[in-house]
Amino acid sequence: MDMHTVVVETAGTTAEDVLAVSRGTARVTVSADALAAVAAARQVIDDLAAKPDPVYGVSTGFGALAVRHISPELRTQLQRNIVRSHAAGMGPRVEREVVRALMFLRLKTLASGRTGVRPLVVETMAALLNAGITPVVHEYGSLGCSGDLAPLSHCALTLMGEGDAEGPDGVVRPAAELLAEHGIEPVELREKEGLALLNGTDGMLGMLVMACADLARLITSADITAALSLEALLGSEKVLAPELHTIRPHPGQGASAANMLKVLAGSALTGHHQDDAPRVQDAYSIRCAPQVAGAVRDTLDHARLVAGRELAAAVDNPVVLPDGRVESNGNFHGAPVAYVLDFLAIAAADLGSIAERRTDRLLDKNRSHGLPAFLAHDAGVDSGLMIAQYTQAALVSEMKRLAVPASVDSIPSSAMQEDHVSMGWSAARKLRTAVDALTRVVAVELVAATRAVELRGGEPAPATRAVLDAVRAAGVGGPGEDRFLAPDLAAAEAFVRSGGLVAAAETVTGPLA
């Protein structure tokens, strides 16, 4: 992404801005209007803090400890302590892009004027992002309710100049050193601020936004590999006719069918399913490819709808309402996000499953309509792509396990005060693994389908020819004697992951859905 500035406003943010900050080089600035709204909300908190009445998060403890009233002289310590005690994550480090999304989305809510923090906190969070300072956040610690508590606490710890963080050079060092090098003063938290930094669905939402972007590319990639497999198997493109999909008007189905039809335009290989061994219909994995990929598309659209609503939300507890009231609420519960994260994992697993079935069909001489066994050069002496399909099957099996929903689980916490949690963070973490696996599954089908088209001979579609040329230029070898196969698969994975497959097809087809 090109360098540009993302302006944070009170109304929320967009998926494009999240990606620009988390994965790109965009700088962050907070609008004057947002800073004014933050200051106004802070005045409400300061006024409440001066009164004797207990207000949750301002002059009380937290969670099950909210029954204790905290005197003014202990409130700075209270806010500092909540961050230190809640920064209790364990396990491997979370990826830099996830942490940057987490921080940016928390900044988005802080800038809404609903949390009651000082403008200083907002500006310092933006400064951390712009300096490329990334807190060390660990895999485990969030139950997806009361927000992504431990992950956000590790970020807040860096804001205070404590704990460890990764610098722009990728080296992990004490946060205090990194802040000093970049001229950033650590923040001494005041009433409500520690709580406001922790109480959001930002981690699971950031991972949802990134998964949506990745899956959009992978669905289109799967449409392309499905078209190549249909072509290599001499299948019928008639099942892709628009009128067949209009009568079952799921929008995703129509889009995937149209993609496949564009890729296959001009092929001399399709429509010969009656020539060698008569077939009235192609197998489901070929014929129903648009229905399955289309259902994944529609699931993705629903997930984007939920993500868009969450990107416009201000998630904190308590919140400062426009009329000045400070009210407790349950908006930090991650259920809306957790459900769609799980739904996407289910859809991704099925898309991987049907791609694997097409690959297996290409390799089986009893079902491939004249292709050599395992697409090998000299079957028996050579094994061809036999074990590539094993690898693909192992990935699909893992994706099926990852499709088991996390959001149906709940383990009560905080002495039964927080007695129902979403597990949305866990749903997001497993979805990331599933998306990586799907990338590899599509890559294996690409290797098999391109090899099969070349072995078939004849004149493939112009778009297929463009894909063949691009995939070979990317380092994926074609037919021939057995060779060390892992580098070919890795090159195909990189080609799919980078968007190269879609870009190659689009040089002929124009934009694909």
From TrEMBL:
Gene Ontology MF term list: histidine ammonia-lyase activity; phenylalanine ammonia-lyase activity
Cross-link type 5-imidazolinone (Ala-Gly), residue numbers: C145-G147
Protein's UniProt name: Histidine ammonia-lyase
Origin species: Streptomyces mashuensis
InterPro entries per the UniProt record, alphabetical: Aromatic_Lyase, Fumarase/histidase_N, HutH, L-Aspartase-like, Phe/His_NH3-lyase_AS
EC class of the enzyme, as a word: lyase
Primary localization: cytoplasm
Keyword tags: Cytoplasm, Histidine metabolism, Lyase
Reaction(s) catalysed by this chain's protein: L-histidine = trans-urocanate + NH4(+)
HAMAP family assigned: His_ammonia_lyase
Domain of life (superkingdom): Bacteria
Entry keyword Cytoplasm: yes
GO biological process annotation, one example: cinnamic acid biosynthetic process
Listed CDD domains: PAL-HAL
Involved pathway(s): Amino-acid degradation; L-histidine degradation into L-glutamate; N-formimidoyl-L-glutamate from L-histidine: step 1/3
Family in the record: Belongs to the PAL/histidase family.
EC number: 4.3.1.3
